[in-house]
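Record 1 of the preview.
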Amino acid sequence: SPGIDSREIDNSARDVIKKAGYAGFFGHGTGHGIGLQVHESPYITWNRKERIREDMVFTIEPGIYVPGVGGGRIEDMVLVKPKGAEALTGLPRKLEVI
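->
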């Protein structure tokens, strides 16, 4: 939602990862702005306080990397709306066993 601190978004992602038992394997920020640069403001991380504004577009891309096992990251883009956010990516979340 417009007006929140970007660190609140990062904290929410970290809470989910911690509850799943992977807190020690998430060593980077949760996302970043999209625009003219690949990475730009707002930075969605624990160490950058940025106010989220309506019409901003940014990624949510938490990744977990377990040494000796592997890792994964799913990146979604979101658009900040007057009362929340709209996901701009629509890939299915179904686990496919191959």
